[in-house]
Amino acid sequence: MAQTRAAAIANATGGQTPIRLAAHFDDADQQRAAATLGMWVFLTTETLFFGALFFAYTIARSAYPDAFAAASRHTSVILGTTNTAILLTSSLFMALAVRAAAMRAHRLAAAMLMVTAVLGLSFAGIKLTEYALEYREHLVPVVDFAFAPDLFRGAELFFWIYFTSTGLHLVHLLIGIALVSLFAWRAYRAEVVNLATKVEVVGLYWHFVDVVWIFLYPLLYLVARA
Amino acid sequence: MSTTLPLPDDASNGAAPRATSQSSYLDAGMTVRSWLTTHDHKRIAILYTLSITAFFFIGGVVATMMRIELATPDGDLVSAETYNKLFTMHGVVMVWFFLIPSIPATLGNFLVPLMIGARDLAFPRLNLASWYLYVAGGAFTIAALVLGGVDTGWTFYAPFSTLYSNTHVIYVLAGVFVVGFSSILTGLNFIVTIHKMRAPGLTWFRLPLFVWANYATAAILVLATPVLAMTLVLLAVERIAGIGIFDPALGGDPLLFQHLFWFYSHPAVYIMVLPAMGVVSEIVACFARNPIFGYRTMAYAIIAIAVVGFLVWGHHMFVSGQSTYAGVVFSMLSFLVAIPSAVKVFNWTATLWHGRITYAAPMLYALGFIGLFTVGGMTGLFLASLALDVQLTDTYFVVAHFHYIMVGGSVSAYLGGIHFWWPKITGRLYSDRWARFAAILLFVGFNFTFFPQYLLGIAGMPRRYHQYPPEFQTLNVLSSAGAVILALGYLLPLLYLGWSLFRGPRANANPWHATGLEWQTPSPPPQHNFASIPEVTEPPYAYRPDRLGREVVQAREGTR
Amino acid sequence: MSLLGLPAQASSFAPKVDALFYAVTAVTCAVAIAIFLTLIVFGIRYRSGSPTRRAEDVPAAQARARKRFELAWTLIPLLLFLSAFGWAGRLYVERDEPPADAMVVFVVAKQWMWKAQHASGQREIDELHVPVGQPIRLVMTSQDVIHSFFVPAFRLKQDVLPGRYTEMWFTPTKAGRFHLFCAEYCGTDHSHMGGDVVVADRAEFQRWLTAHGGAPDMAARGEALFREYGCSGCHGANAAVHAPNLAGIYGKPVPLADGTTTVADDRYIRDSILLPQREVVAGYAPIMPSFAGRIGDEEIFDLIAYVRSLADTRDRPR
């Protein structure tokens, strides 16, 4: 049977590849392939979930173009751009972590995962700061939303979509941070059973969260900023 | 067929004792806890079967009340409000808590790993989680029922559902939202399993059509359900927070809701029918002792239905105020999606050609499916025809159409599958005479209940009507009378199948002498499915040359 | 009643729909019967124990005929389907083409009644009187949820939406009373929301108009509302404010501030009253206030009738 890449590396370095094989899988390759395909399928469902929200955005924006432009100008573009840079950088470190885990470089993987988590937390912190600012400016729908009367409906709809989509994104990010931190801890403690697979799967998830943000950023922050 | 296990060697059903060298999955843990914490796909399938049966009877009781009310033109049994709640709960329960999970989560869960020579699904714990999500979603829906019901219709059209209904809409939205994730996890599990865990030699075009059908269904589950989830969130937000997404009074667009809703709900009907088609293929091949006519065509047709099924949702909206051009496009696509369905009916019929047909209960259900699905499908053509749909939409013609497909079709196939694989799942045989009687009762009762509804629709009776003009009464009485027979047809299997669990003769591994890997392991299967994973070297449905079948049948005919 | 229980044919559209219906019924029945007969014949002939050839006895050449069968039973249905699609589609498109001389009736649906307004001022609830042979164009909206105006005898149905106008046109061809149903579930009394369309010959319709007349017609009511809501303050001949002159605009193109052009139809007038910022006329400032929440749907219909009447005569006495 063909050797897996990890097994080849392990043999070359004289060690064993620590894999715990679930009873229903034939071999480690199958288990890993199933895990990654499973994550891809899950991400497809997430794409459609967010996709429906993006569709609602599209319809709402075509109905209220001026209100959307005006409302978008009230988002903090500096904080949003900073956040975009932070999240993209975190994806870089995530990719490095995946590579490190595949190479059985556990301490390096732990470090890369840690940086990813820290960057993720920074993103979350900045996002919550933005929310606080928006609350103070009376831009939270239902709570005490205030806007120019002739653009009120459209602006309220914009901000509802803004809070829902970034909120959903934030929830997904926090779950990602939790998982990344957990694996960082485990990798640091060399409790590395199936680590390569787990990190690869979380990596896919993290990159997806990043991609969703890449779409959200221009749609929410850059509507009327030429 | 497997090269590692011997073929069953006797023709007398049930005389062989159950394999005692291995205990079955039913023996592995006898406590309730062992069932509620199981990772075994077979046990999870049984958990699902019990829950969906319970919901089926809830939905059925509600339908019974509706049919009693409709026997008279006046709204004299229940108030209008109550009636509106009845048809809403009937739709919600039957669609999301019975039909959508039915074949995939019960027969699919049990059989897909067995049919592909795997020891379980790819993610057993996710499988269990999906059942718990189903139960949680069900709990929300029962809560809504207990708290007084919901009156929006299962289609939740806005702005009625967001701003005008005074019932516990949010509970039902939550219930459907949660059970949607159950669907998504099931679909995800099937896709990964079928891609990655097939036995050696089992290429895609050696897969049984039941597996193809569940695969295509899983793809629809995974792609369509998230859109429903988001739509329900949008509904809830508008209802709770008054944000104007769908209600024009708040600046929203009611047609946006309909597009989002039907984008899921049309593919949803293919979730309900594709697995049924898979079951029918398995049964017809076995009882005609013939390979399925045009196997590859059948597989491609399944995929075609799934793909094109995503492109036709606008045919629910021909009179909604949607643009005429959109209507024309959706009508054309709706006709196109009917082609692979028609081809499947022709291929099943052709499978009988030069076969050697016997008529056990599963075959009666399968033939019933073919007949009733044909009628339902034909009436779909009326609805795809734009000018005819203008007259017939929102009338009882549509009600009859979808009941022919979902009940006459899917439920018949579901029952046929239960009867076909019952020996495998339980290790017991049931009384074929009672089973055939129930199948015939169901077919007769079904036609009496729903054929008059086509005529009601043609005569102009709208749907969701609590009371109606007296000239529609005769057909309504006929329909209600048929419902009594139909109900009997549903109750009977509970009795003789239940009886068989305690007193039925034991089944051997392959009482039907069917092909397929699931029949190569004992009945009921051991916990890990196979003693050793088989290797597949033949195409599916290797009923020709049917050496074994011929010998078996010749023995029965006394010509051996 | 016609074959299969179709209701009476009471509109010019109905016979065309019925012809298509019978054709589709005939073809689908024929195919279904053919399938059922085949199933029965095969089911008996190839029954286990019957003396006949089985698959293993069949020469391979017959198996090759399989491909030809499959092609045939794919292409023939496709052709039939395309024909049905084309026929039905052509008929459907006619719904969008009301004749120019159609008599307009305005309909407002609300939970749970139908309110109709004739241009000449008569109002009806749950009934609609129309003359035989005269094309009628219904302009409809809802005050609350989605309803649907369904007259089985006309073979026509159209959803009625809040916040929008939808239209349905027909030419009644037969005198009588015909069911009017609400066909989109709309709440508690959905099944009670209906009545009759009363088609009368011309003379009788005139008598009905006269008997129920006496009220000012819609354009006159609209003129009163035009003054009452202050519209004439900006749009009147002696207004100090720079606002578009409404004389003769109905049905004509209107250039908008964003460079596009729209037509001054019922929808445009309604949106101008309720959402004035959305389509500002080229060369004018967006200073018109919104009357959303202050003017009801029926009053908007009256105003539309008034603006429409300005096209007919410029010197309508004020």
Which key terms come to mind for this protein?
heterotrimer; A: 226 residues; mainly alpha; Four Helix Bundle (Hemerythrin (Met), subunit A); 7 helices; elongated; B: 560 residues; Cytochrome C Oxidase, Chain A; 66% helix; globular; disordered N terminus
Outline:
The complex is a heterotrimer of chains A (226), B (560) and C (318). Chain B is mainly alpha-helical.
Under CATH, the homologous superfamily of chain A reads Cytochrome c oxidase, subunit III, four-helix bundle
Shape of chain A: elongated
State the CATH topology of the largest domain in chain C. Answer: Immunoglobulin-like
Overall pLDDT level of chain A: 89
Number of domains of chain A: 1
Identify low-pLDDT runs of chain A: none
User: Between the first and last Cα atoms of chain C, what is the distance in angstroms?
Assistant: 53 Å
Count of folded domains of chain C? 2
CATH architecture identity of chain A: Up-down Bundle
Number of strand elements of chain C: 12
What is the CATH third-level topology name of chain A?
Four Helix Bundle (Hemerythrin (Met), subunit A)
Fold and architecture overview:
The complex is a heterotrimer of chains A (226), B (560) and C (318). Chain A has 226 residues and is mainly alpha-helical. Chain A is built from 7 helices and no strands. The model of chain A has no long low-confidence stretch (mean pLDDT 89). Helices cover 77% and strands 0% of the residues of chain A. Chain A has a single domain (26-221), classed as Up-down Bundle (Four Helix Bundle (Hemerythrin (Met), subunit A)), CATH 1.20.120.80. Helix content of chain B is 66%, strand content 0%. Chain B has helices at residues 32-36, 41-69, 80-99, 102-116, 124-146, 160-164, 169-196, 209-241, 254-288, 295-308, 324-351, 361-384, 386-392, 396-426, 432-459, 473-503, 547-557. The longest helix of chain B is centred in the middle third of the chain and has 35 residues, at 254-288. Chain B has a single domain, classed as Cytochrome C Oxidase, Chain A (Up-down Bundle), CATH 1.20.210. Chain B is mostly helical. Residues 1-21 of chain B have low confidence and may be disordered. Chain C has 2 domains: 1-52 and 98-215, Cupredoxins -  blue copper proteins (Immunoglobulin-like); 218-312, Cytochrome c-like domain (Cytochrome Bc1 Complex, Chain D, domain 2, Orthogonal Bundle), CATH 1.10.760.10. Chain C is 37% helix and 20% strand. Chain C has 7 helices and 12 strands. In chain C, helix 1 (14-45) runs antiparallel to helix 2 (60-93). The longest helix of chain C is centred in the first third of the chain and has 34 residues, at 60-93. Chains in contact: A-B, B-C. The interface between B and C is large, with 88 and 81 residues.
